[in-house]
Specification:
The complex is a heterodimer of chains A (about 400) and B (about 325). Chain A is of the alpha/beta class and about 400 residues long. Chain A is about 45% helix and about 20% strand. The N and C termini of chain A lie far apart (about 75 Å). The chains are: A alpha/beta (about 400), B mainly alpha (about 325).
Amino acid sequence: MRKIMMASAAMAMALAATTASAEIKLGVIMGFTGPIESLTPGMAAGAEQAMKEVTDSGLLLDGETVTPVRGDSTCVDAAAATAAAERLITSDGVAAIVGADCSGVTTAIANNVAVPNGVVMVSPSATSPALTTIDDNGYFFRVAPSDARQGQVLATIVKERGVKSVAISYTNNDYGKGLADAFGSSFTGMGGKVEITAAHEDGKADYSAEVAALAAAGADALVVFGYVDQGGKGIIQTSLDTGAYDMFFMADGMVGQSLIDAIGSGLNGSVATLPGSDSPGAAKFLEVSAAAGNDGDGPFRGESYDAAALIMLAIQAAGTPDRAAIQAKLMDVANAPGERIYPGELGKALKILASGGEVDYVGASNVELTDVGEASGSYKELEVEGGKFETKSIR
Amino acid sequence: MIDILNALALFSNFVIVPALAYGSQLALGALGITLVFGILRFANFAHGDLMAFGTMVVILVTWLFQSWGIGIAPLPTALLALPFGILGAVMIALVADRAVFRFYRKQKSKPIIFVIASVGVMFMLNGIVRFIIGPDDQAFADGARFLITFREFKELTGLGEGIAVRQTQALTVVVAILVVSALFWFLQRTRTGKSMRAYSDNEDLALLSGIDPDRVVLVTWIIAASLAAIAGTLYGLDKSFKPFTYFQLLLPMFAAAIVGGIGQPLGAIVGGFVIAFSEVTITYAYKKFLRYLLPDDMAPDTLVQLLSTDYKFAVSFIILVVVLLVRPTGIFRGKVI
C-alpha cells in the first residue's frame, strides 16, 4: 500500500514537473548569413526579447516557457531557407514561425513548408506585393506592409522634393522588382519621368558598367532598391565615385548605419523610407528594449518583437499551442476590439486573455492587420544628416 | 567644340578609365594562364583561385601592418604587403605542382588529364581561401581614394562633364606596365627566359640542347603565381575582394588569353584589353554621349544600349566562342586548344 502511494506520488510529481517545464518552441527564421546579415541579429533579438518577456511573466497558459529556435533563411537561397524551415517544423516541432525576412525566401517557405504543414508564419519584414495574393489558407501574416504602399509613399516624397526624373536600380529579386514596379507606376502616375529601370546583381565586385548605364539616362536622382551590405552599396559608391549621381532615394533594405559608415559624407541629403510610426509604441519599445539590454533602434526590430508577441497572444487566446488554433486567433488579438497593448505590456495582455477578455495589440509598429493579414502600413521618411538617418516625418 | 570635349570626358569617365583598369587586371591574369599553357601545356583552371589565395595573404599582411601602424600613405598599405602575397602564391603553386602536376608530368599524361587535375586544385584552393578568410567581401584599400575627383576635374577644366580617376585605377595601370615590361625583358634577354621560350617552342629540341626541364617548370610557376598575386591584389584594391568573384574572373581571363592567342604573352595583354573594352562598350548606354555629339533634332530618346548590363559576362563568353569557331589561333597565332 505504502509503495503504491509512493509510486503515485512520484508519478504525480513527475507529471507536475513535465507540465511546469513544458516549453513552447517558436521558430525564428532570418537571414543570419547573406545580404542582410548585419540587420538580422537585431531583429532576432527583438523577437527573442518578446519571448523572454512572456516566459518571465509566467502567465502564458500554465506558466509555459517560450524557447526560440533559430533557422537561417540566407535571405536569397530558397532551397536553404526551405530546408531550415522544414527542420524547425518537423524535427524541432515549433508551434509557429517568426519570419522569414526577405520576400523571396518567405514566399518559398510559405508555399513549400509552412502552409502545407499548417504552421503560422508572421514575417516582420517581407514586403513584396506578391505576398498579398499568395495562396496561404490564412497561415501567412506580416506586420510589415506591402511594398506597393512603400512604392507610393516614396514616389510622393520624391515628387514633393521637386525631383522630376529618376533612374531606378533594383536588386534582381522579388523584393527589388516589386518595389521598382510599384514605385515606377506611381511616380509616372504623378507626372514624374522614369528614365531607366535596371536590375543589379548582388555580390559583384564591380558595378561600373551598371552605373555607366544609369548615368547615361541623365536623370535628376537615383532610386536604389537594394540591400545595405550588397549591390545597393556598390551602386551608390560607384555613382558617387564617378559623379554619376549625388542624390539618392532608397527603400527600407538600404537603411542601416553600415551604409553610411561605408560611404561617408557623400550620402548626406539622401532620403529613405522605412516602415514605422510615431505611435507611443515605438518609443515604448525603445525603453523596454533598453531595459532588456537590447538596442531597439534599428530596421525591423520592433516589427520582429511584434511578430513574436502576436503569436504568443494568439496561443493564450486559443488556450493551446496548437498550430491551427494559433491561426484562428491571431487576427483577433491583432485588431480591435479590446484593450490596447503596447510593448512591455505582454504580461497584462496575457492576464486579460486568460480571464476571457479581448486585446487589440498595437505594439512597437502600430499593428493593424488588413483582412489578408498584413499591416496597412505607415512609413518613416528618413534623411541622412551628419552621418545618421534622421526621421523627418511619418506618412 | 565644347560639346565634343564634354562627350569625350563623359566617355572617358564611364568607359575608358574603368576599362583600362579592368583590362590591365585581366591582362596580368591572362599572362599567367598563357605562360602555363605555353610551357606546361595545359589550361590551368586553378589560376583564378591562385589569385584569390595570393590576395588573401596580401589582405592578412595588410591588416597586420595596419594594426602596427605601418603604412606608406597616400599609397595603399597593400603594396607593402604585396611581396608576402607573391611569396604565398608561389609557395602554394609549387606545393600544388609537387603534389599533383609533377606526378602527371612523369606519367606523360594527356593535357586533358592536367586540366581535370587543375580543376581539383581549383576546388582545393577555393576551400582553403574560404576556410581562412571566409566567403565575404573584405575591404583592405586604404590611402588616398582619388587621383582626381569628378568635381575637381570639372572645376579645373570648366567642362560640364568630369573624369574621376581613382588612385587604384592609376596604380593598376602603372604596376601592370612595370610588371609586363619586366616580364618581357626577362623572356627576351635572360638565359632562363630564352630557355623557357625554347622549351615552349619545341620541348624535345630544348631537352636535347641541355635545358633543365625542372628548372623551366619551377621558374614558370614562380612567374605565373607572382602574376596571379599581383593581378588579384590590384583587382581587389580597385574593386573588392570576394573569393567567388575571383573564381568568376576565370572566364574573362581565359577569353582574353585565347582571343590574343594562347601561349603568346603579347596576345594575353591585347586580349585582356579587347575583352575589357568589349564588355564595357557593348553594355554602355550611349544616350547622353550622342546627345553631346548630334544636333538636337537627331538626339536619341532611347538609351542606345546594345545589351543590358546583366549580360556583361555573356559578352566575354560570346567572344570566346566566336574566336574558337572563326580563328582558333587567336589574334597573335597562338597554339590551338
